[in-house]
Every structure is written in structure tokens, then in C-alpha cells.
Amino acid sequence: MAIILTFSVFNSSAQLTDMGRLLTGGAEDGGKLLEAYLAPFPKAFGTSLNAGWYNTARPHRFPGFDLTFSLNVAFVPDEAKYFNLDDLQLSQAAQYAEGAVAPTFSGSSGEPRPSIRYTQSVNDQEIVLAEYTLPQGTGLGFIPAPALQLGVGVPLGTDIIFRYTPEVKLGDAGNMGLWGIGVKHSVKQWIPVLKRVPVFNLSVMGGYTKFYTGADINFLPEDIRDGNNRPAQDNTEMVSFDNQKIDFGVGSFTFNLVASADIPFFTAYAGFGINSTTTNLKMTGWYPVPTVNTQDPSIIEVTDESALKDPVDFTLGGDYKGAQPRVTVGGKFKLAVVHIHFDYTYAHYSVVSAGLGISFR
Fold it and tell me: Which residues, 6+ apart, have CB-to-CB distance to 207 below 8 Å?
């Protein structure tokens, strides 16, 4: 339910309208504002997706397997909850208070937010095209991600791990789905000294998870307001605004060296590795962008020429836009075939994980 709640918030009608509103100053400024606003979401969510891959370094014997459900929760650091508009280098048409600070997706939902005004010069007169308040934060300082995975033992001390969540509809909030694949291989078997230690296991593992979600947007010319709070006129003839959609995909990769001490009722495990996340954001369809009516400068309108088609398609890097180190420590309680595990991953976006599974070795 936590993950459904997160994406219901992200895909709520108010949030989606704000996504469209950020484009009223054009695709370039809109892209910068979107990236700044959404920045903590892919970083935190990608880090969550990279958790829960292992709870022991010991692989299954063929044809053993385990089926595990885990919930991974990443925490957004305080410095990622706000952004400074001065850092974005917006176009000269954008006007806002110098040094203005706005909440990101994970920022506060109740604090005052700065406004942006876009103007156009006509006959030496500055006309206000649009003015709006930047989106509020969701107040979510944490981002959860579920992982339902199947690990199957194959020969040569190796597990093949699969993750899959079929695409599900979230009502009016859109849709979501997930898949992943990983490999864990014992390196203990290749080190003579370690082979003689019965409870200690050492493995390497790598995993890739892909998550995607999408939702329809409904941002219309009347949602654009000029300096006098008047809606823009829709003077389009060939353009339709009923096909707007946002698609959001997160791809996360992790590689780790995993060690564990396995005794009959408990396993202590630790891992050191890297985390890398890439996010793709697309906004497709036609979106209204205001302009001044050439016959009457007091009228702000949207025309076929001013509207934008498929305005956003860019990739967001993960935490610091590269592979980042991560350290995990945890424990697993084993009750016959039922296993319960808990662990903590230290990283820039740290993660707490808990899971329940069954295992047959």
C-alpha cells in the first residue's frame, strides 16, 4: 500500500496539472524546473530499488529456491528537499524574487512558495503572459519501493534472481509495473582457505531493476493565468490538448561483494558495492504555451504556433549522476523454511529494508 500511496500522490490531478504549468515558459525552462522539482524522487526511488537483492551470501544448491517479499524505504536528505531558482539559469523572460527557494517533490507541502512570471515585450510595453506559483512538495521525506523476487539455484554455486510486478492500474492515478534480474555467484568456492570455513560465505552479486509508471495529464489554456488572473484564450484550430501524458521510467543497477555468517537459526550479512540510477521522463501530446494576440495586446492566447508538442524527453542521472558507494548490514531469522530479514544501507540516500520469504535449499 505504501508504494501505491506514493504514486497516487505523484500522479494526483493537482501534481499533474503543476507538471503542465511548468511548461508555460517554454520547453527549455520547463525542463529545468521539472528536473529540479523531481530530482530527489528518482535518486531515492532508484536507491530503494537497488535494496533487498540479498539476505545471505550463500547460494542455493540446485534446484533450491527462495521467494521473498521486501519493502525498501529510502530517506531523502534535507538538502534535497529544496532548490534555488538562481541555480537553474532560466531564460530572461522568467521573473522571480532573487534567491527564491522552492520545495522539491519531497519538500514541505505547507510552506510559502515562490512565483514565476513570464513576460513578452510588445511595442515597448511589457505584457504578462503567465504567472504561477511553483508546485508544493508532497511532504514525503521517504520513498518506498517493494520487491517481490524469486531466487533459483543453478550449478556452479550461482543463483539467478528474478523480480516482477505485472502492470497494474492505479485508478485515475495511472499505471505502474516493475521487472528485474540479478545474479549471485559464490567466490568462496574458488578460495582454498575460505572453503574450509563452514559458516562463512562470500559472493558477488549484480542486479538491474526497471520500474515504469505513466498517467494522463489535463492541462488546458484556461489553466494559464496572466498578471490579472485572467485565463488565456484558446485560439487553436489544429491542435488538441486531450492527448497529454507523462511517462516515468527508473532503471537501477547495483553490484556488491556480499559476506555472511550462516548458522541454523540466524544469518548475519554485510555487503559493500555501488549503486547507479538513470531516470527517463517524457511528456507527450500538445501543451498550451501563451503568447500575446497580435491584434489586441491585452489578450493572452494560445495558438497552433505557440503550443508545444512532446515537449519533454530527458534523462535524469541518479545520485550525483554516477555510481555511488553503498554499505549494507543486516540479519535474517530462519524459522524452518520461513525467513524474516532486516537491513540498513548507508549511502547518500540511506535505505531501511525488511522482508519475509520462504527458502528451500
Answer: 50, 53, 161, 180, 181, 182, 183, 253, 254
